């Protein structure tokens, strides 16, 4: 990185706002920005935001070393079913595997059960004569003429835009899939191809094929989007690198994002978890609940020992939002979090059947947005309720760039809520807050309970445009005693892009009992994955000597239907490591289930390698001009705020940028910055730590 080209920009495109953070370590500059997302073409807000933040920092596009970007485009495409027309080639006799699935019902007693719409209809799934056994033996050779004929039919008669190939046992022996890919490329070089052995080289045919189909489904759209973003950036004079955030929290190249876009399905939310991990490391917090509330959704994630929890499967496009089994199963590495339809744009309504008030998951989004935005919204949203309750300053939203109008909000509450229930506007707004906060608290309790965790032993880190507004009350409901709100909380997800390391996860499946494992074969798998990870991360800007590798085996008792991750002692293993691996398996099993069955045999299914380079460190103090503010600053104004169970309180309003290290305050108080407002209730102690975080101790 040269002095002239030292700035880095993180860009998070959300459902309502696009957030930006610029960091230039050479010039010691940190700048933040937030503007409304442009749903019709997200790249418009990206370019406008980058141009603006460069102007504020007095930099040119030529000074930018890299732009790191995350997007919800993959998720939205699958949810809305707006992807490509996809064809599937599969083993003879297995055409309906992705439709049969696991033969389970996510609701046993629903006679009219709705199943997720398949991405590849039956007419576009064609069978190919070939067969490989589970041990890798070729039982029936690949019919190459059938592959060519099937592809011609799909392309010329069915007009497919992408193709997936999922043959039986290709995770172990991929040669037939590879040869089919060569045939397809020779016939139609322009056609995007997703081979299941490359997209998800793991055991379990249904999940592997489903992942390959989903990858093909979003591949053309994602390639066009990334090309458009890259071309538009270059047109401004940008000569640096464009990197993309993976769902697992690492950053990768545009090339990998185009080849495997399904790995970006949780790209945006992962950045928030990485920001929390960074902040927890700075502040020395070992156990953290990451709370990210934006305009459309709220995300919660556990961060233990400065690392967000991960998992290696995901369900996309669930028919029932929180019902496991109602979506499309994907084998991808993701940060383990819960996502709730509770954001600043979540709409309030009276349910006609029960007469009760409901909030979300339907959102006003960026267009038209909440009523107070004055962009055509007519239904009251959470942000509207926050305005009525005094939590937001109508003249200082987005630092004063956007004015909020209270009168249309009151009329909307009167028409939509008061007319139906008879309660006044203030109580209706308080009801919206109660519902949305209880919804988030309930989901968080469940998420922690599933992992055997007690929220009282955790600190909450809150960010996102709406996160600091609701965090104090959410922490109170969860009985969490300490809350941390970082500087620039409203754009902290974009900060996550800048501190995330170049990282990727590799996986190969090889099933064997622990005492019968061929360790030479395992070592060869790890060597292959290490070489691939090293090449990819070097392309993503990592220094090869700084890349670390963490091997993990997914193991279970023989006969179980699920497995647990077991850390391994190294990349070169032998029979001598078996006792240690067995002991680690029992330790992890006991931690999850509080009991072990030592006499039951153990088997390994998949072997994973996490590859990561060091992330960046950012001094957020660069975002605040040098100040000699007193330890107890003078509030710039006061505002009445309605708190549940307490009533209206006269709250001092502080300028976030005037609070220096060591400042101590008492709640109730409002602390405003450009992109968010932190609401602190009565009897709470507030301190500014050495990293300019607000540390709030609840009573």
From TrEMBL:
Source organism of this protein record: Neoroseomonas lacus
GO cellular component terms, semicolon-separated: cytosol
Any Gene Ontology biological process: glutathione metabolic process
Domain Hydantoinase A/oxoprolinase: 208-503
All residue ranges annotated as the Hydantoinase/oxoprolinase N-terminal domain in the record: 8-186
Name assigned to this protein: Methylhydantoinase
Ranges where the Acetophenone carboxylase-like C-terminal domain occurs: 521-691
Highest taxon of the lineage: Bacteria
Family annotation (InterPro entries): ACX-like_C, ATPase_NBD, Hydant_A_N, Hydantoinase_A, Oxoprolinase-like
GO molecular function: 5-oxoprolinase (ATP-hydrolyzing) activity
